[in-house]
Amino acid sequence: MAVNIHKPMITEMKRRVLEALRESSGYLSGETLANRLGTSRVSIWKHIRSLEKEGYLIEASRNGYRLVSSPDLLLPYEFPGFEQRIHYFPEIGSTMDAARELAKRGAGEGTIVIAEAQTHGRGRLGREWLSPMGGIYFTLILRPKISPANAPRINLMASVAVAVTIRKLFGLNAGLKWPNDVFIEGKKVCGILSEMDAEMGEVNFVNLGIGINANTAIHQLEGTATSLKHVTERDISRKEFLGALLVEIEHRQPSLMEASLLEEWKRLSVTLNKDVTITAPGEVITGRAIDVDATGALIIRERNGSLKKAVAGDCTQ
Q1: How far does the chain reach from its first CA to its final CA, in angstroms?
Q2: N or C: which end of the chain has fewer CB within 10 A?
């Protein structure tokens, strides 16, 4: 079934109005704004009203307008430098489904689909990913110049970026569970899913889906999951977190094929040197996880001493 992926209008003028209000320490009159931005006072008023409908609190007086507060919504205007690449939805079936249609239509590298909530969020192996309000759900379209065999490294790169962002912003000891989960205090806080389109040994695109339990209430999650709100015991700024994460991912993309990515993943891993059971299609591998290879596959030493490679599957430890 087709997904409605019409991009909500992001007017350049509305962005500039918001930017001007943010930069001002006091009030800005409609006339000042109109002259500065080269438009009419009526246009300024319309954009102010539009911003207010989106949740921005703007005080109006005879002295002009003053931005009081911004909503903790993942609106495009909140991510300078990324806003023109963002397709934002208050609610959608799945950001992955929307991103697939966009990618097949030729959407460029770095296109982002963000939703406040998903009604049919997907996890690995077709499982449901609970996506209530308060979380962070987005899919990033990538067009890397790599072989399909190396595509799993994208998951490793993304999981490192999430864990590092958590550590930087909150000082929490976030760790990585193979193949693509981020854990805090033994519970899952983030899941990552990637879907690849490739042919003749070349990658057409990889859609990288990331779901983070940010301000999600614990009772809305499975017993093996946690949220940043629960661990920090306060509401976090989802805007700040997502903005920092997008920058972190962009910063790490050039080193996707470098050995340093694997080394960093290993340092953050909570899977290596642990006894694990990998359940994959057609086989179950049990043993000790000892390494990951250049493609991101997990190397396991079985009880008889033989080495097995797990490319994908469920990991329990």
Answers
A1: 38
A2: N
Side chain identity at 90, as an amino acid letter?
P
Q: Tokens representing 303?
A: 């009880």
Q: Are 157 and 249 in contact (CB under 8 A)?
A: yes
Of 172, 99, 175, 93, whose CA–CA distance to 141 is shortest? 99
Domains located in the chain, CATH noted: 12-69 (1.10.10.10), 76-268 (3.30.930.10), 275-316 (2.30.30.100)
Distance CA 159, CA 35 (A): 46
pLDDT at 6 (0 to 100): 47
Report which of 290, 289, 286, 278 is spatially closest to residue 303, judged by C-alpha positions.
286
Listed in sequence order, the residues at least 6 apart from 26 whose beta carbon sits closer than 8 Å to its beta carbon are: 63, 66
Cis amide bond preceding 179, omega within 30? yes
Q: What is the pTM of this model?
A: 0.87
d(CA 94, CA 1): 12
Can you tell me the distance from the alpha carbon of 118 to that of 137, in angstroms, rounded to the nearest whole number?
A: 8
Share of residues in the chain with pLDDT > 90 (%): 75
Of 221, 205, 214, 251, nearest to 235 (Cα)? Answer: 214
Cis bond before residue 144 (omega within 30° of 0): no
> What is the bridge-based pairing of β-strands 187-199 and 202-212?
antiparallel
The pLDDT tens digits for 226-280 are 999 999 999 999 999 999 999 999 999 999 999 999 999 999 999 999 999 999 8
Is residue 65 helix, strand or coil? strand
Three-state SS for 144? coil
Residue 217 confidence (pLDDT): 84
SS3 label, residue 84: helix
Sign of the four-CA dihedral 251, 252, 255, 260: positive
